[in-house]
């Protein structure tokens, strides 16, 4: 699996869309960056996650 992932989520309810993005973050990854935009009557959330090192 890769060390970083980028996922895109979209929906009309910001809270629900953000909750969806958080719940789909893999257990051994953490959110590195999150960008929220409002386009065409929908929220678009771009999440960059990074693998947590296991030292």
| Helix run count | 1
Main pleated sheet: 3 strands, antiparallel
Distance between the termini: 17 Å
- What string, H for helix and E for strand, traces the elements in order? EHEE
Low-confidence runs? none
| Number of DSSP-assigned strands | 3
> What strand line-up does the widest sheet have?
1-3-2
Note the overall shape: elongated
Average per-residue pLDDT, rounded, comes to: 92
Question: Could you characterize what this model shows?
Answer:
The chain is an alpha+beta fold and 55 residues long. The protein contains one helix and three strands; from the N terminus they run βαββ. It has one helix spanning 14-23, and strands at 4-11, 29-39, 42-51. The protein has a three-stranded antiparallel β-sheet, covered by helices on one side. A hairpin with a 2-residue loop joins strand 2 (29-39) and strand 3. The longest helix has 10 residues, at 14-23. It starts with a strand and ends with a strand. The mean pLDDT is 92.
Characteristics of this structure?
55 residues; single chain; alpha+beta; 3-stranded antiparallel sheet
Outline the secondary-structure elements:
Layout: E1 4-11, H1 14-23, E2 29-39, E3 42-51
Antiparallel strand pairs: 1-3, 2-3
């Amino acid at each position: 699996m890769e060390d970083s992932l980028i996922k895109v989520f979209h929906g009309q309810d910001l809270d629900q869309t953000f909750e969806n993005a958080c719940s789909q973050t893999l257990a051994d990854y953490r959110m590195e960056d999150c960008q929220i935009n409002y386009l065409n009557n929908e929220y678009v959330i771009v999440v960059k996650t990074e693998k947590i090192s296991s030292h």
